[in-house]
Amino acid sequence: MTRRLADIADVRSGDKGDNVSIGVLARRPEDYGAMLAALDPARVRALFGDWVRGHVEVHPMPNIDGALVLLVGGLGGGATSTLRFDQTAKALGNAILRLPVG
Q1: Which of 20, 44, 53, 58 is most enclosed, with most CB atoms within 10 A?
Q2: Taking Cα atoms as reference points, which of 33, 15, 13, 38 lies closest to residue 23?
Q3: How confident is the model over 16-70, as pLDDT tens digits?
């Protein structure tokens, strides 16, 4: 069975305008490396496809076994202008947990 990011990490997400920020925290220090590998910007971009119009940034935070993932242009224009059913970052934060962990 393939492990997913959900098996080793927790997330908290937020939005500002058209950008999504996702905080990802490894549950155990020994899973931090696998978590960072799963959060490769190209893999994150592939997961969300054309939903992210800008770039993907991943900022490691080794002092807390975490990372900040930033999806620039990830909300279809932002909460007040998007036609998406779920216009906030909450669903995208949970969706990132589907990434496979090697």
Answers
A1: 20
A2: 13
A3: 888 899 999 999 999 999 999 999 999 999 999 988 999 999 999 999 999 999 9
Instruction: Report yes or no: 69 and 55 within 8 Å, Cβ to Cβ.
Output: no
Task: Tell me how far apart the alpha carbons of residues 80 and 75 are, in angstroms, rounded to a whole number.
Answer: 10
Q: Coil, strand or helix: which one is 71?
A: strand
- Structural domain spans, the chain: 5-98
For residue 38 the two structure tokens come to 């799963």
Report d(CA 63, CA 71) in Å as an integer. 22
Q: How far is CA 79 from CA 1, 11, 96, 100, in A?
A: 37, 21, 20, 29
Q: Which residue type sits at 1?
A: M
Task: Give the global pTM.
Answer: 0.88
Residue 31 structure tokens:
């899973």
